[in-house]
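[Q] Does anyone have a clean structure-token version of this?
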Amino acid sequence: SSMASAASTPNALNEKTKELIALALGVAAHCDGCIGFHVKALHRLNTTEEELTEALGMAIWPRPEEPPIL
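[A] Here you go.
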């Protein structure tokens, strides 16, 4: 579809950034297949451990028991 094409084509956001967002959304949705798919793509894109850790941190924060710090 045109929406999928627009989402996957690098433009203002590069491919790695889009994959990090997609991974975070997969984690938030508890979608194992999505997580695996996007982790493989991020590995192909040479994502660093620091990048991955930061994205995953955003995916699980804020937790209901922990109010956000603004």
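[Q] Thanks! Anything notable?
[A] The helical segments are 2-8, 15-28, 32-44, 49-60.
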